Amino acid sequence: MKVLGIVGSKRKKGNTSVLVQKALQAAQKEGMETEIIYLGDYDIHGCRGCDGCKKTYKCIIDDDMQKIYPLLLESEAVILGSPTYFYNVTSDIKAFIDRCYCLEAFAEDDRSVWLGINEAMGGKYAVVIAVCEQSSEEDMGYTAVAMEKSLQALGYRVVESVKVLKLFSKGEALGDKEALENAEKAGVKLAKTLKLRKEVQERLSL
Ligand SMILES: Cc1cc2nc3c(=O)[nH]c(=O)nc-3n(C[C@H](O)[C@H](O)[C@H](O)COP(=O)(O)O)c2cc1C
């Protein structure tokens, strides 16, 4: 079972990276196969809203997002992390999420009827990690909720949302015991959820 970590900060040794890695390591210790990607390494253009994906669920834009789609499809779970940039996710995370639009399906005659293709594939799981500098959750704005709601719409159940306040400098998270513990717990919970699903599938002989 594979868990994909996705870091939405361009600071590879930054706080989001530290915490996504911590959660991923915990999942790995629980027996999960893991991989981490840094969106800053990829050239991801914005969604054009062309609907070219309508029948195929494949985006027609030929850029680095084409390297990420297979990783998403082969993973049962994701750990998505973003720092707060002006009360919201980074532009890298936003571009990534928007380009996942091709993974949504709508009924031909009624666009209020829709689902994520992940739902058609049996559902997936996610952990969200949001990091900000200020000291109240209000200062984090929409960061966590923007990731949670988008992942839910894409057919992921968000099992844990880790919100970390008061981190500014690169790598400061390494000294934040509580944040590290919360990221670790979230990674364990994600792995245990996947293991439980497998057990249930086996009991049901699926
Ligand atoms: C462009 C920009 C906008 C930011 N906006 C906010 C903000 O609205 N609220 C906040 O608390 N921190 C804000 N921050 C601080 C970052 O969220 C904080 O430094 C975080 O720890 C960075 O995570 P990273 O090390 O993973 O990049 C902002 C930082 C930058 C560079």
What percent strand? Answer: 15-25%
Shape: globular
- The largest sheet has its strands arranged as 2-1-3-6-7
Average of the residue pLDDT scores: 97
The CATH superfamily label reads Flavodoxin domain
Which ions and ligands are bound to the chains? flavin mononucleotide
Structurally, how many domains make up the residues? Answer: 1
What is the fold-level CATH name, i.e. the topology?
A: Rossmann fold
CATH class: Alpha Beta
What gyration radius follows from the Cα positions, in whole Å?
17 Å
Output the helix-strand order.
Answer: EHEHEHEEHEHEH
Q: Which segments are poorly predicted (pLDDT under 50) over 5 or more consecutive residues?
A: none
Largest sheet: 5 strands, parallel
Roughly how many Å apart are the termini? Answer: 16 Å
So, CATH architecture? 3-Layer(aba) Sandwich
Structural category is alpha/beta
Helix content: 25-40%
Q: Based on DSSP secondary structure assignment, what is the total number of beta strands?
A: 7
Determine the number of helices (DSSP H or I, runs of at least 4 residues).
Answer: 6
Highlighted features:
alpha/beta; Rossmann fold; binds flavin mononucleotide
Description:
This protein has helices spanning 15-29, 65-74, 91-98, 117-120, 143-153, 177-203; strands at residues 2-7, 33-38, 77-83, 104-107, 110-116, 124-131, 156-164. The chain has a five-stranded parallel beta sheet, with helices on both faces. The chain has a two-stranded antiparallel ribbon with strand order 4-5. Strand 1, helix 1 (15-29) and strand 2 (33-38) form a beta-alpha-beta unit. The model has no long low-confidence stretch (mean pLDDT 97). It is globular and about 50 Å long. The chain is α/β, with parallel strands linked by helices and 206 residues long. Helix 1 (15-29) packs parallel to helix 6. It contains six helices and seven strands, in the order βαβαβαββαβαβα. The chain has one domain: Flavodoxin domain (Rossmann fold). It binds flavin mononucleotide (FMN). Residues 9, 11, 14-17, 83-87, 131-134, 139, 167-168, 170 line the site of flavin mononucleotide.
